[in-house]
Specification:
about 65% helix, about 5% strand, two-stranded antiparallel ribbon, single chain, mainly alpha, Four Helix Bundle (Hemerythrin (Met), subunit A), about 160 residues
Length: about 160
């Protein structure tokens, strides 16, 4: 299991860095153009991803209160640097735990204040899957604002590197 989580979090970092590379190549107007998706803009989607990763890390460390650490008022560089830091920390979480630690339940609250418990490895899988979902949206959003110089974000592409 640890090997799978190591591969998954390494892929997660690579895929996030790749999509960030695409986003860094668009104009400010494209970044904030209104598009139809879960969030109204590319920038809002990236802010959501960065904050979600941060807050899941906080839950793993024992803090369940949602905190917005980065907003759309921040520069794109501030947002993407913060997101990169959060993503890398998931690799660090996996590296810091043996199989027993990865299977330990993490008690936390959701945004509605309800108490839940998930094994650490399930949280890691959730965070990586959540990012995959929104990276797919970002690819579609990028195309909607006219950016087409995209490459594959598939896990199989990552494994062939």
């Amino acid at each position: 299991m640890k090997t799978v989580l190591t591969h998954t979090t390494n892929y997660h970092v690579w895929a996030n860095n790749t999509i960030i590379g695409f986003i860094e190549n668009i104009s400010g107007d494209q970044l904030t153009a209104t598009v139809v998706s879960s969030f109204a803009t590319i920038k809002a989607t990236v802010v959501h991803l960065a904050n979600a990763e941060y807050n899941w890390l906080q839950r793993v460390q024992g803090t369940s209160v949602w905190e917005t650490k980065i907003t759309e008022e921040n520069t794109l560089t501030e947002i993407t640097d913060f997101w990169k830091q959060q993503s890398q920390q998931w690799c660090d979480v996996v590296a810091a735990h043996d199989i027993t630690g990865l299977m330990q339940p993490i008690d936390h609250q959701n945004l509605s204040g309800q108490h839940h418990s998930l094994d650490l490895y399930k949280i890691i899988m959730h965070v990586c899957n959540h990012a995959t979902y929104h990276r797919g949206q970002l690819v579609t959003m990028l195309r909607q604002v006219g950016y087409t110089q995209l490459s594959s974000l598939d896990m199989s592409t990552f494994f062939r590197l």
